[in-house]
């Protein structure tokens, strides 16, 4: 992205269009060029930060940019309503400061008292990097003509990667049926999860092969799975996948 300087844009909130995703003005796209990260932090008036994912969508022969996963939580936590005006100021390193104005034209007082419900809080605009979030690392190896995965220094052999049980228990993932994987380009992939009894582990199944094939994941590659935020429903959650990019 270009130098932060005075880069800013505003949006009038319309629930039918912006409840679950926020469209970035096309005129602002040029300022996003060269931005390598898809995970952005929004610093609210209260000082807490919310994580959102920047995704690219092809619509009517043109690319549109949206803030997606995490945006609905930002809207809900701030009680944003139809007609509210949101001012986004880029403050560097994938961080935006967001000011919220009501229909009166004045800042919404309630927005200064809210807290982030994504399961992570921050009182300062830190760089939105995957080292801030829960994560686990998987390295793809070859053994006995099967794919094996080394997870937190423990070797096992499987056609499918698993989520370490300690990690899954710590963040309430054992009852989830699916996960959305976000690749480095921002594309999202739905994978099925299955909890196996023997050995006791939570595996990724349907959807993983498509994800790994599309992202050209090979034996010897290392993947860091970053838990982006708390689940937005009772059945799924989202993870950013960093390929050959260690913290």
TrEMBL record:
<dbReference type="GO" id="GO:0005634">
    <property type="term" value="C:nucleus"/>
</dbReference>
<dbReference type="GO" id="GO:0003677">
    <property type="term" value="F:DNA binding"/>
</dbReference>
<dbReference type="InterPro" id="IPR015300">
    <property type="entry name" value="DNA-bd_pseudobarrel_sf"/>
</dbReference>
<keyword id="KW-0238">DNA-binding</keyword>
<feature type="domain" description="TF-B3">
    <location>
        <begin position="7"/>
        <end position="104"/>
    </location>
</feature>
<keyword id="KW-0805">Transcription regulation</keyword>
<keyword id="KW-0539">Nucleus</keyword>
<dbReference type="InterPro" id="IPR050655">
    <property type="entry name" value="Plant_B3_domain"/>
</dbReference>
<protein>
    <submittedName>
        <fullName>B3 domain-containing protein Os03g0212300-like isoform X1</fullName>
    </submittedName>
</protein>
<keyword id="KW-0804">Transcription</keyword>
<dbReference type="InterPro" id="IPR003340">
    <property type="entry name" value="B3_DNA-bd"/>
</dbReference>
<dbReference type="Pfam" id="PF02362">
    <property type="entry name" value="B3"/>
</dbReference>
<feature type="domain" description="TF-B3">
    <location>
        <begin position="163"/>
        <end position="245"/>
    </location>
</feature>
């Amino acid at each position: 992205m270009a130098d932060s300087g005075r880069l800013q844009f505003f949006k009038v909130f319309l629930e039918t269009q912006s409840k679950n995703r926020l469209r970035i003005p096309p005129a602002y796209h040029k300022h996003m060029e060269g931005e390598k990260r898809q995970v952005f932090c929004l610093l609210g008036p209260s000082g807490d930060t919310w994580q959102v994912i920047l995704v690219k969508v092809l619509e009517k022969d043109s690319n549109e940019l949206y803030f997606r996963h995490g945006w609905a939580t930002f809207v809900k936590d701030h009680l944003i309503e139809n007609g509210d005006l949101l001012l986004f100021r880029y403050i560097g390193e994938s961080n935006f400061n967001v000011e919220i104005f009501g229909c009166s034209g004045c800042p919404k007082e309630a927005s200064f008292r809210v807290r982030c419900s994504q399961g992570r809080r921050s009182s300062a605009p830190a760089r939105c990097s995957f080292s801030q979030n829960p994560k686990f690392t998987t390295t793809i190896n070859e053994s006995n003509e099967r794919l094996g995965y080394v997870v937190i220094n423990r070797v096992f052999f499987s056609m499918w990667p698993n989520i370490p049980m300690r990690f899954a228990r710590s963040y309430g993932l054992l009852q989830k049926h699916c996960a959305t994987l976000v690749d480095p380009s921002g594309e999202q992939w739905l994978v099925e999860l299955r909890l196996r009894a023997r050995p006791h582990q939570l595996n990724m199944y349907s959807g993983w092969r498509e994800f790994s094939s599309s992202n050209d994941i090979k034996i010897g590659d290392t993947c860091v799975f970053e838990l982006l935020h708390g689940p937005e429903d009772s059945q799924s959650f989202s993870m950013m996948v960093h390929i050959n990019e260690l913290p």
